[in-house]
């Protein structure tokens, strides 16, 4: 059975306000066994809080988030400038995986740009491998776009054979590929999984008023509502087939399932995590 954890990006505000360890205690009390750290500074205070969570709560720090290179969107440590620190953090926390959350936008723009970026990933993955650490790449829907008939995900796999994957099943679904097909196709390299549900909202009754006016601008506003009525959902509150997906993810090689919900739409993230945990417990996790 894969270890069930939380993607701490959901709780970055709570960590900033309360400190790492008090938030980890709440995560543990909900029944989660591991965390993945993203969008939270790996400074001494937070790293010490994670150490305390391991020692006193029995939590597992399953993965740390990094960027390949320093850029405008990099929010934490980067492999080009912080390699030794990243390795030290992993050793300190007993962490085997580091993950890149997304390639830079410019790397997505062409096949050659993507190949060049993936080649840099391969070099860093080999360096990390020498330290006993595996580099993962996390997908979004854009990774199912194709350059000359080749998916970006496949391109990364071809060029960066030492890089394994963190498969975000919501973004696979949104990218137009059946998640079960993804897990079968990439079996053996799916080391961690982001578990979040895909909710389609009913159209609000008042939106029908936009159609009734006959005004082209109102119709355009209605079509915007119609085409954007998708949300990130608590696990079990959307349309994903988790009783089939989670065993398939384990067969594909996953060591960790990290619950993540990018937007909670005004709800307390802890309440969202509680609902997700309750559902997962109801299906045997």
Give short descriptive properties of this protein.
8-stranded parallel barrel; 2 domains; isomerase; 285 residues; globular; IolE/XylAMocC-like; TIM Barrel; alpha/beta; isomerase activity; Xyl_isomerase-like_sf
Q: What can you tell me about this protein's structure?
A:
The protein is α/β, with parallel strands linked by helices. The protein has two domains: 3-196 and 235-282, TIM Barrel, CATH 3.20.20; 202-230, no CATH class. It contains twelve helices and twelve strands. The strands form three sheets. Strands 1-2-3-4-5-8-9-12 form an eight-stranded parallel β-barrel, surrounded by four helices. A two-stranded antiparallel sheet has the order 6-7. Helix 4 (83-93) links the parallel strand 3 (60-66) and strand 4. Helix 2 runs parallel beside helix 3. The termini are close together. The mean pLDDT is 96.
